[in-house]
Amino acid sequence: MKRMSLTTRMSLMFMLAVTAVLTVAGLSFSNLSRHHFKMLDQQALNEKLISSQKILTGMSSINQFSEFKPELEALLGAHRDLTALIIDGDGKLLFADPGPVNVPEKFRTRINKDLWEWSDQRQMYRGMTSQISIVGQDKPLTVILVDDVTQHMAFFETLERWFLIGLVICALVSAALGWMVASNGLRPIRQVTEVATSMSAKSLKERIPLTPVPKELQQMVLSFNAMLSRLDDAFVRLSNFSADIAHELRTPVSNLMTHTEVVLSRKRNIEDYEDTLYSNLDEFKRMGRMIDDMLFLAKSDNGLITHEIKSINLLEIVEKLIEYYRLLAEDRGISLAVSGKGCATGDVLMLHRALSNLLSNALRYTPEGQSITIDVQQKELSTVIVVENPGTTIAPQHLERLFDRFYRVDPARREGSPSNAGLGLSITRSIVEAHDGKIWCTSTDGKTAFHIELPSIQLPTA
Amino acid sequence: MRLLVAEDEPKIGTYLQQGLTEAGFNVDRFTNGKVALQYALSEAYDLLILDVMMPGMDGWEVLQKVRASGKDVPVLFLTARDRVEDRVKGLELGADDYLIKPFAFSELLARVRTLLRRGCSAPSQTHMKLADLEVDLLKRRAIRSGKRIDLTAKEFALLELLLRRRGEVLPKSLIASQVWDMNFDSDSNVIEVAVRRLRAKIDDDFEVKLIHTSRGMGYMLDAPDSESE
């Protein structure tokens, strides 16, 4: 089922709320006034009944009735709507003013002080019955007072009809008002939607302006803008990456082409050909390695480097790596020092590779005769590995981007061995992030340090 | 030694055949999976090299059928796809090793030799000798021309590896993996330094050089007069 539009929903609810309030108010008003009228009627009838009783008890015998009649008429005849009947014990009508009314039998005998009401066809009556004992009579007289309340009732009916009509009109008007309020109130949403709809890959730089947006929507707009920034960032990275791949592959391919063509341009001796093939082989190896690295990064971007989770002694890994790199370090008079200890969970081979890249990187930039320190610190919730080497201080604006693919602090320089394509640190970061860790770089006073923080959840030892 | 190569890409196939033939193997090459399977079942090969993607029948199916027929011949997979599931699948089906394209030929050769050697476990030697170089594996001692050579543990391990596989060009990646347990693409300059140091101890003072560099491919230990296998 299609959901109702927000505007429709809001106007409907508005209408329902108004109708409900009006109905409750109307019903209470109607009931209260009915009750009030009834009380008034009862009071009036009661008074008359008491007065007639006084007159009638003043008689010494029933024969005096005609003497009292004018008095009764004066009392009871004043009201147009009031009818009074006095019946003697044998059922004979003694008095009827203004004329006899057909009072149902059951009310004639109901002599308590209750108000009773009945209606015949169009008329509606309220009445009271009382019995008065007269001296010398064994059977009491029955006095019946009847009030014709047809007009009251007609008034209530009219009132209710108008109230109903008013209610319907109010409901319609409130629906219309609700619709106006809702569509006005929802206008900012529509504006936000319009901006969002107009977004495309090319306009990822646009942001939804925050100032005209009401407070309730600001959080949503902020999240949306944040999402746009992330998308834009990823998009820019992706396009840069493709451009970088093209560029990085173009260099070796053009080297290969030029070299091969030059060598083939005239006859040479066998050593020259051999030389060319060897140099081509180096170039091919470099390209092959770059493809491997890029595939690795692509896989890690898609969360495909499924690593096995094991408890790992980081110090062991570092010591193994130091043993490997010691030869290279000694060759350049660099000393390697390791301190501390710590554990992490993850894939041994991956972490090995990540740390190997850092160490290899550090060796590349450390001046001869200096020393690299590796510190493993076990903290409460994490393990931090710091690889620190002396070397040129890296400017702060480069620190964050150091882990970007193919990023070089100095674009004109290709540091170190030709196999260094600028992917090592990216790979290290991918691996660290696949382990839910963090990596960052600090560089001050001629010392550069790479920090890796890995969560150290202890696995139950199998 | 007779090898079967099933590879539909003509260039790689031809060069594989040439390279392996020149390395002393007898190579039959097929470009169709079905034909390759027929031969694999009817002839006696020492090793199968299978490409995954092939017309007729893919490498996995060939492997499955070969294993189903009860043949225990070692199988090496070549694949352009490097997905973990692919590797797991290959190994589950009973492949012995896999190589991801692009690969270095020296790497392939080293792996082929490893697989072929696996079947006939070398007698546990305690002494090895090459020209005037003698190595005592138990005492971990090397002597050349009667002169004791002091080696570090890793240098000894490197020498032992080169000696066990004398006459073979060992790629740097294989040396890094076997001696230092670096099972990923690591800084290969380290191997250069390690070999240079070993060479300084083993070769520098002697007329006859035993350690040879195969440029761009790797290192080999061999006496000049001994014939290659």
What characteristic shape of chain B results from the CA principal axes?
elongated
Q: How much of the sequence of chain B is in beta strands?
A: 15-25%
Estimated share of beta-strand residues of chain A: 15-25%
Major sheet size, sense and barrel closure of chain B: 5 strands, parallel
The count of β-strands of chain B is 11
CATH class of the largest domain in chain B: Alpha Beta
Strands side by side in the biggest sheet of chain B: 2-1-3-4-5
- Round the mean pLDDT of chain A to the nearest integer and report it: 83
* CATH level 3 topology of the largest domain in chain B: Rossmann fold
**What gap, in angstroms, lies between the N and C termini of chain B?**
11 Å
What do we call the CATH topology of the largest domain in chain A? Beta-Lactamase
The CATH architecture of the largest domain in chain B can be named as 3-Layer(aba) Sandwich
What does the overall shape of chain A look like? rod-shaped
Q: How many domains comprise the coordinates of chain B?
A: 2
CATH superfamily of the largest domain in chain B: Response regulator
Calculate the mean pLDDT score of chain B and round it.
85
Structural class of chain A: alpha+beta
Overall structural domain count of chain A: 3
Domain HAMP (chain A): 183-236
Membrane topology (chain A): Multi-pass membrane protein
InterPro entries (chain A): CusS-like_sensor, CztS_silS_copS, HAMP_dom, HATPase_C_sf, HATPase_dom, His_kinase_dom, HisK_dim/P_dom, HisK_dim/P_sf
Main location (chain A): membrane
